[in-house]
Amino acid sequence: MHAVNTGVNPLPLQGEILALVLNLIVTLCTESIGLVHSISLRSALASESRLHFNTNLRLLTAARGWYNPNGTLFNGISAVLLIISYSSASLVVCLDSSMTYADLAIAGTPLFVLGVALLLQVMIALSAMRAVKILTWSSSPFDLTAALVHHTQLTPATLRCMRCVSDLDTDEGPAKPSEIQPSAWHALPSIRRVVISLWVIVAACAGWAALVTYMSHKHLKSPFIPMTTKTWSFLPNESSSFILYPIPGVDLKVWILLFVNIVVVQGPLTLGLHCSELIANVIRDERRWRCATGRKGLTTATNPVKTIFTYPICFVLFVAKPFLHWMFGLSFQVFNYVSEGKLAESSVSMNTPQIWNLCIALFIFASLFTFVALRRPRGPQPAAYGHLQTLANLVDEWSPVMWWGHKEDGIPYCHAGTSDHPLPDVKMDCVYAGSGAGSLVLS
Q1: Rounded to whole angstroms, how far apart are CA atoms 416 and 408?
Q2: 116 burial type by CB count under 10 A (0-12 exposed, 13-18 middle, 19+ buried)
Q3: CA pair distance 39, 66, nearest whole angstrom
Q4: Computed over its alpha carbons, how large is the radius of gyration of the chain?
Q5: Mind listing the pLDDT tens digit for each residue in 44-81?
Q6: SS3 state of residue 68
Q7: What is the pLDDT of residues 303-314, one digit of tens each?
Q8: What three-state secondary structure class fits 204?
């Protein structure tokens, strides 16, 4: 058995750059597939009267029907394929070593698996698209709400023009404006579950780092190098602390075992970042809605590519996906031993400083998304967070550009709503119920 000395042969810098670029390409492909899949899922849920929010976790929310392309079975397959896509990207760039040399190599098997995984995801997304009548291709919650109202799948409720999404369970209608709105954490239980799952991943990564650190100090002999301040670095180098274990077998058996190893470890990271989409998109929908009280008003149409760069939280998530997967690749590296042109053996190196770096990056990421989820919007405009029924209650006049505010005085209730021109601010000491509320009270 030959063990590759990773301390002598670190992956060259050009290999790390190539791995980062490959992860970015995988992110671009999977995000494009996800956009089609999520839009078809919205229409499928709407046809079952189960669509409540503009944003849904497409891999963890399913339509009815076992063989439905938007159902549980294919969503589960898509989740596995998503994990395999990023795991394959982590295995493509590796170090080939023999008794006389070590060089950068592109592994054909994981590259082939990556292509197949992406192709199968495309096929599932196209099947899901063909299996349902698409209500609207727009990712805007306002276009979706208008489509549902137009097709009578959603009916605006009366007396609730000043009620936010967290007031759904209350039977009370008229209300005074509130100076501050509930956070996404308090308004949506699913947001709380996502935030908790992020911190579980951070804790798991810290536990992994602590275990590898302990093992590197306990076994002070090759192929283990203990971690000290001198061995700390961002990229693995000749003095990096690590532990090494071999993967038995040759050729196909080695690749199967490598994929199993990396999928099990990397899977929670991939799913955690996928779940983070819920927080980013819900906050995006709410910030777009709050533009209705701004000088330029709310433009209902949206460009899904432009929103990535318009809203900081969406851009952070888009950058974090390839970057954190790349950092995982720095922590969990594969080294192949070549004999007579064939893969004779592989070894996996767990690099201690890079695992701690990943843990720190995940901690920063989880802290940012927790802060965003806990932040309470200010102003009297009721928070909707992309909730379709709430938007239907708040928007009483649809136009390409809308403003929200005070529309008319009344006794005993005033009316707040939307218009195609700027509106005055609502009156904080008045009770609002909606258009025609006075006649309802008199009757």
Answers
A1: 7
A2: middle
A3: 19
A4: 26
A5: 999 998 999 999 888 888 899 888 999 999 999 999 99
A6: coil
A7: 888 888 889 999
A8: helix
